[in-house]
Design a protein that fits this description.
- Helix 4 packs antiparallel against helix 8.
- The longest helix has 48 residues.
- This protein is mainly α.
- 79% of the residues lie in helices and 0% in strands.
- The radius of gyration is 34 Å and the shape is flat.
- It is built from 10 helices and no strands.
Length: 253
Amino acid sequence: MMSESDEHGSLLEKINEKIHEYKGSSSSSSSSSDSDDDKKPRRSKSKSKIKKLFGRQHPLHHVLGGGRAADLVLWRDKQTSGSILAGVTVVWLLFEGIGYHLLTFCCHSLIVFLTVCFVWSNAASFINRGPPKFPDVILSEVQCLKIAHILRKEINEAFLTLRNVASGKDLKTYLTSIAALWFISIIGSCFSFLTLSYTIFLMAYTLPMLYEKYEDEVDVVGEKVLIELKKQYAVLDDKLLSKIPMLSEKKQH
C-alpha cells in the first residue's frame, strides 16, 4: 500500500511540474508576441512619418492616371513594356547609328506596309484565307475640338508665362527661366535632338518603375535633399536676393 501511495504521489508531482512548465512557456510566448505586436505599430508609424516625394498623397499608379498608360510606365505588363522600349531603341539606333533619315524611314515603312497588304489582298483567294481587315479610322468633330481646346489653353499659358518673365516684374522668375534655358542649351550642345528625346523617353519610361520599387528609400533621400536645398536657398536669399531692391520691396509689401 505504501508503494502504491508513493507512486501516486510521484505521478501527481510530475503532473504539477508539467503544468508549471506549460504555463511558463505560454507566458513567455505571449510576452514575445506582445513585444512583436508592439514593434509592428512602431515600424508602421516610422514609415508613416516619411514624407512622400513632392508631397504626394496618392499611390504612384493613381498619380500617373491609373489607366493603361500607367500600367505600361510602371511595367505591370513586362512583355508589352519591354517590347515598346525595344522598338523605340531600334528606331533610335536606325537614326543615330546607321544614319537613317526620318522621311526615308517613313516612306520605306509605308512601302513595306502597302506591299504586304496589296499582296495579301490579292492572294487571299488562292490560299483560302480572308483578306486583311482595315479598321475605319475617323476622327470625330468632338475629338478634334477637344484637342484644339487643350492646345489653345497650353499655348495661351505659355504666352502668358513669357509675357510675365519679359515684363520685368518678377526677377526671381526671370532668373529661374534664364538658368533653366542655359542648362538646357548646355545639354543640347552635348547631344543631338533625337538622342536627347530618346534619353528623356528612357528616363520617363524607367524611373517611375524604379521609384515604385525603392519608394521608401527614395522618399528618405528626397526629403533630405529638399531640406538641404531650402537651407542653401535661405543662405542665397540672405546674402544676395534680399539685397536686390526689386525683391526687397516685394517682400515688404
